[in-house]
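Q: Predict the assembly, please.
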Amino acid sequence: MIDYLLGGLGAAFSLSIFPVLVFGVLGGIILGALPGLTATMGVAILLPFTFGMAPIAAMVMLIGVYIGGIYGGSIAAILLKTPGTPASAASVLDGYALTLKGEAARALSISVVASFIGGLISTIVLIAIAPMLAKFALRFSAPEYFALALFGLTIIASVSSNNILKGLLAGTIGLLVSTVGLDPITSVPRFTFGIMDLYNGINVIPVLIGLFAISEALNQLENLNLKTKVAEKFNSKLMSLKDLKNILPTTIKSALLGTSIGAVPGAGADISAFVCYNEAKRASKNPEEFGNGSIKGLAAAESGNNGVTGGSLVPLLTLGVPGDAVSAVLLGALIVQGLTPGPLLFTQNPEIVYGIFSSMLVANIVMLLIGLFGIRFFCQITKVPKLLMIPIIIFLSIVGAYAINNSMFDVGIAIVFGVLGFILGKLKIPTSPILLAIILGPMAETNLRRSLLMYDGSWSFLYERPIALAFIAMAIFSLWSTIRRNKKG
Amino acid sequence: MFNRGVVFPVLMIVVSAIILAVIPQFSVPSYGQQDASVGAKFFPTVLAIAQILICIALLIQQRAKKIEAIESEKIFSKMSLFGLCFLITYAVLIHLLGYLVASLIAFTLYLAYLKTKKPSYYLFAYVFVVAIYYLFGHVFVISLPEGVFFRGFYD
Amino acid sequence: MNKIIKSVIFMAGVLASVSAFSADYPTKNIRLIVPFGAGGGTDSVARAIANSAKDILGTSISVMNRTGGSGAVGMSYGAQQRGDGYTLTVVTREIASLPQMGLMQNDVNDFKLIRMINLDPAVVLVNKDSPFNNINDLITEAKAHPGEVKFASTAAPNFYLMALEKNQGIKLNAIPYNGSSEAIPSVLGGHTAVTMVTPGEAISQLRSGQLKALGVMSKKRISYIPNVPTLIEQGVNVTTGTWRGIAAPKSTPDKIIKTLGKAFDQAMASDNFKHFMTKGAMTIHNMNAVEFTQFVKDDTKSLSTLIQ
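A: Predicted assembly structure:
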């Protein structure tokens, strides 16, 4: 195994592969940073180009895009409060607060270091115990997914601790929005009013763009003064060693959590980032810092979303089933190369498997270097006059909302949610619960009803299955600790 | 003056009531499709009722605290209204004229409205628009809107 | 960087060949609308055929994903475009089923079909440890315990399953999943007993032996899984599957349809495309415009007996 790994590392650094890897990571970071463009889209677009490549080079490039894309979303989230992907929405909470304090460089360095640690640990876990993780993932059926979604929804209370009622209201708004479209079990149209664009439901990306980017642009316009810069204060200091020591335990825990979440097909980086953020806040001695520029909160979200990268390859490599949309494209890429993802890949083409593993290790290092060296350039954004930055955010938002599905309808959705987000902001109602609810709502509803179908209408699955029971216990615990914290505060 | 802490929850209660009125109109699953004991109507109904309860709780909370009652700041200031109009105009322009032309016009309008006179700002704006156009169209190969009037113009 | 240089050189080549090609079509980019998301099966077939056809037509073909309503949004959008040959649409079996279910306004009559690209039968799959060893084991069990055998359904309603249920007078407990990538793990984990997907969707589990095929729902055995008997061989006369093709809006001139037809014939015969399809365990099934149109009419009829 070590031989293969060393061989793979050698290949990853070879002249024919390394440039492809750097190209992939860099491309991924750019794609991820632009709202509306996702890592999935990046790998899908690049897929036909890989047909003519050697298997390792093809996989390396796609994996580079994947890893870079998840990280790239956070740059815009931290600097401009406009998360490039749903996975980086949790990074806004503390990352942008740090930027406002003038600590953009520190936030960006924490973000890339946490992402790196998350990606690295998750890759190591993938290399070490992928088959075991796969067995764990296979035990997930509808009841487990339902319980996981339920647990995820309790995070709403935690991210809206100023006024739980307002957070809950945002949650129900999001959950109701998530019921629009064809019902997942019976295909009955719900709240579609005959509009075909609504049949597939409301896409989360335009909602994300509206709630965060557009509403923020409207906000900024309000107190626009011709001379204001994006951030008034700017300190070029990066994170300190003390910061690293501070965030390390949280980061490692989040990396492991993220890997496990990624290993479960259907649960991705967006859910992971919020779960890890929630867990970091729960475990923290000063939870009131969260949302006001806590470096632990930022590190947890960042390590959590990049931790998924290794995890999501577990079902792909060990079972041959894609864990999320990106690994579905990777699956396609492997198959086109004449390879059979799944248990056979380890015995028949170990050089490919270890080539993938080692390129993931290297891709994470490349990401770290690009991220660290890039900080100086990224931070220039904060010096751009607001007057120019606002239309840029608006243009990128509109283009991004359009690009996700080539549809002006989604542009309309983004604008509607932009206005909604703006109004909610004035009412001091948090917007991230809406996003969380739209991601988790369909998961909760579909799997509850699926479970009932499997159990012939009996609700016994809630306590008969250990993993489901564990999640439900965690959900209750999470709610209880939030309420207790609020009473104290 | 209206108190927005009261108006919004009331508004949401009305919305929830409308939702509850729409739910019974969902069509019945056909084609022999089976459904769980908890059907398509269950989730929306529970959520709408929960939303009403939360809003009522918010109203009670508002009453108990009696704070923020006098808040003269309007939800939409002149600038944010301008922003909203700008957004909608831009979207309509894109629909009609396509990305490139619409963005150039919109950026110019925006800078003119804010009475910017710095040529460097205008230059920056145009370079940005064209750069994005190039990035999407030729590097990512994602087609940007062409507009109703200009089909074929961008090819 | 290399990629960009390559593509620039390529673009230059394309431009040169376009100007050399004096015919009046095509003179600019062609858009291919894919009614499903980037990265899915339909998307990858579309990108592969576009990749092969662009050199033949001498113009670039950009894939445009327009998702929604199980394909209804993209296909309706495609039907409503100008018939100038510059907007083509990938049509799938949903164009036969959705209009009958009232879930799509446009139907196959709003298109001129150009070519069928591929036709894949469904395969009946169970876990490797399943007590079922052939299709009749499954049918016997379903007859003994109606509505109890758990079926991981890739869509709701599932026409693969309905075809079998109607033919055999059986009833399974169909649990809807979001496509094969969710249905297969459910069978692998033993949460459901059986599923039906196309061979390409389960090829890695079939090769590694994690899943067992009870039968393939085609008239003849298929080359990728030669040991799997058809349902017909086992005395169950059911065939079903899914197909994909390329169509243009109704108003497109016949001359352009012919040009495109020839181009897609060549693209389907190209080594690149054949290689892609073989590796993915998908079956190329080239059907010309007339045959394809008739085929869709017949399939629409057979689906209507299931839907009513």
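Chain C touches chain B at residues 4, 28-29, 31, 62, 64, 82, 86, 101, 156-157, 162, 173-174, 306-307 (CB under 8 Å). The first strand of chain C starts at residue 30 and ends at 34.
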